[in-house]
Amino acid sequence: MIIGICTCEIFIFNANSLKSKRSVVKSIIEKSKNRFNISIAEVGENDKWQKSIIAFSTISNDQKIVEETVEKVINFFDSYSEIEIINIKREIL
């Protein structure tokens, strides 16, 4: 069993309140969960308006599939014009 874990620190443009930040983060999390069948959550920077840390994981018997899924999710995050990825940490176990 191969496990892929990724943590992305993101900057959210035009977030002027926690409510607007949560709206963007919730959208990213729900769409990612439905599209890629991953476990995903906001894990840090909960009290900051324009920053968030989102972590996700995926599991498979094939390392190539895990690596591809992690890359696809990162590319999906990158497609959002409302955010910029500041830092990415990936780990394959």
UniProtKB/TrEMBL annotation:
Q: Which SUPFAM superfamilies match?
A: Hypothetical protein TT1725
Q: Which domain of life is it from?
A: Bacteria
Which Pfam family is an annotated match for this chain, by its short name? DUF503
Q: Which PANTHER family match?
A: DUF503 DOMAIN-CONTAINING PROTEIN (PTHR36441:SF1), HYPOTHETICAL CYTOSOLIC PROTEIN (PTHR36441)
Instruction: Please identify the protein, giving its name as recorded.
Output: YlxP-like protein
